[in-house]
């Protein structure tokens, strides 16, 4: 058995109609796990995400590794037989376009499930069923609506998270739904419609705060405001000014902390006997620990935290991770070739199965890189493919 055939989803075929982050993130998880994911792109310029700048410049290559590209005009009459053939061959169709777009293209759930009753049809939208169902949504919007931005920023200054966390979590939730539907299909023989949404994903993420409010009856305070459940759970700076988060979350860790940092005075202080007591003493305890850490070099401070068995970590910028020893020791970061010929390190899927990780097997594709191969698999003849290419209805890039 070759490496591709040994992957968990090696026998699953996915048609992806998507853009931006939510849909492609669902597709890349399936692709990383071994599914054959065909990304359908418009002609002649491909997925518009390819051409974003600023923070969006990385969207396409990051979320389109391990995928094939079919660049085809879905509105051209001559392309319909190919699309229908691909749908019949597919296990999963996923899309994250505006509500109604796929129906207008004749590619909605009802029409596609009539072609292939075993098809799992994944819709990734802003909202699930309800009054907001037809609204457009973006990651940042639902962070605001759900209270996630409120809990992230300083009081009165809601702040979105520093990554497209809801888009990505929403895509992953969609994958969970697909895997459940595939399992159910084993029993029923039929596919079904699966939906995942940004808003409900963000609400799920702040569920801890909803339950907290229900249990305490108190107004919620943003996480940026010190309201700690543990006595030491803060960012401290080393002698060189490197910020390091240190958490002491059990009494055993507290004892080890005092021993390793040579603070018998703190261990003997009855005011600090127990986590609840240490929380009550944070007004003077936190500055005391800060002053102590400020006299210790970065490497020595990290080593002491390691020796004490604490929860700790340096406060990094994303680019610092490129040199992270843990990520670079194995396949935590893997180099891929970008469509423009450059290279970039990309993180692996954050799971292991049987000790195996999942990352780049196929570089992100050029526009229409696999068009001819995919159309041949769909049953089109060379003459038919040549005709579509000549008419501009299909783009192929070597």
Structural class by SSE content: alpha/beta
Low-confidence stretches: none
Instruction: Please state the second-level CATH architecture of the largest domain.
Output: 3-Layer(aba) Sandwich
With strands numbered from the N-terminus, the spatial order across the biggest sheet is 6-5-4-1-2-3-14
Give the N-to-C terminal Cα separation: 29 Å
CATH topology of the largest domain, what is it called? Rossmann fold
Question: What is the CATH first-level class name of the largest domain?
Answer: Alpha Beta
Shape: elongated
The number of helical runs is: 18
Describe this entry's structure for a reader.
The protein is an alpha/beta fold and 398 residues long. It has 2 domains: 13-205 and 330-395, Crotonobetainyl-coa:carnitine coa-transferase, domain 1 (Rossmann fold, 3-Layer(aba) Sandwich); 232-319, formyl-coa transferase, domain 3, CATH 3.30.1540.10. Helices cover 39% and strands 17% of the residues. It has 18 helices and 14 strands. It has helices at 22-32, 59-63, 80-89, 101-104, 109-115, 139-146, 148-152, 165-188, 198-205, 207-216, 251-260, 264-268, 275-280, 282-293, 298-308, 325-329, 371-377, 382-390, and strands at residues 13-17, 36-41, 67-72, 92-95, 120-125, 193-197, 232-237, 243-248, 311-314, 333-337, 343-347, 349-353, 356-358, 394-395. Strands 6-5-4-1-2-3-14 form a 7-stranded mixed beta sheet, sandwiched between helices. The protein has a 3-stranded antiparallel beta sheet with strand order 7-8-9. Strand 7 (232-237) and strand 8 (243-248) form a beta hairpin. The protein is elongated, with a radius of gyration of 26 Å. 34% of the residues are buried.
């Amino acid at each position: 058995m070759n490496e591709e055939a040994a992957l968990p989803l090696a026998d699953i075929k996915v048609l992806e109609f998507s853009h931006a982050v939510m849909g492609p993130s669902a597709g890349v998880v399936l692709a990383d796990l071994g599914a054959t994911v065909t990304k359908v792109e418009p002609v002649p310029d491909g997925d518009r995400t390819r051409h974003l700048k600023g923070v969006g410049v990385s969207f396409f290559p990051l979320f389109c590794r391990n995928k094939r590209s079919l660049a085809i005009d879905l509105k051209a009459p001559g392309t319909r037989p190919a699309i229908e053939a691909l749908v019949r061959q597919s296990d999963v169709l996923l899309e994250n376009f505006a509500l109604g777009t796929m129906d207008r293209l004749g590619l909605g759930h009802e029409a596609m499930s009539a072609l292939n009753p075993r098809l799992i049809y994944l819709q990734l939208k802003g909202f699930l069923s309800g009054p907001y169902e037809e609204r457009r949504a973006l990651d940042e919007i639902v962070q605001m609506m759900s209270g996630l931005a409120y809990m992230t920023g300083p009081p009165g200054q809601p702040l979105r998270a520093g990554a497209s966390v809801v888009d990505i979590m929403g895509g992953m939730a969609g994958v969970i739904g697909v895997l459940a539907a595939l399992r159910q299909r084993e029993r029923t023989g039929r596919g079904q419609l699966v939906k995942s949404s940004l808003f409900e994903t963000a609400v799920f993420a702040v569920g801890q705060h909803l339950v907290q409010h229900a249990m305490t009856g108190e107004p919620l305070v943003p996480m940026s405001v010190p309201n700690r459940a543990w006595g030491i759970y803060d960012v401290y700076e080393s002698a060189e000014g490197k910020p390091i988060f240190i958490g002491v979350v059990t009494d055993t860790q507290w004892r080890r902390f005092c021993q390793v940092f040579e603070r018998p005075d703190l261990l003997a202080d009855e005011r600090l006997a127990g986590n609840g007591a240490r929380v009550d003493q944070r007004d003077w305890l936190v500055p005391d620990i800060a002053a102590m850490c400020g006299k210790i070099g970065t490497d020595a401070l990290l080593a002491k935290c390691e020796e004490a068995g604490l929860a700790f970590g340096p406060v990094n910028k994303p680019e610092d991770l490129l040199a992270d020893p843990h990520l670079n020791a194995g396949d935590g970061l893997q180099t891929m070739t970008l469509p423009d010929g450059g290279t970039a390190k990309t993180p692996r899927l954050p799971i292991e199965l049987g000790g195996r990780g999942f990352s780049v097997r196929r570089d992100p594709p050029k526009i229409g890189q696999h068009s001819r191969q995919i159309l041949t698999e769909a049953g089109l003849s060379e003459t038919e493919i040549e005709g579509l290419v000549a008419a501009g209805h299909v783009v192929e890039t070597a």
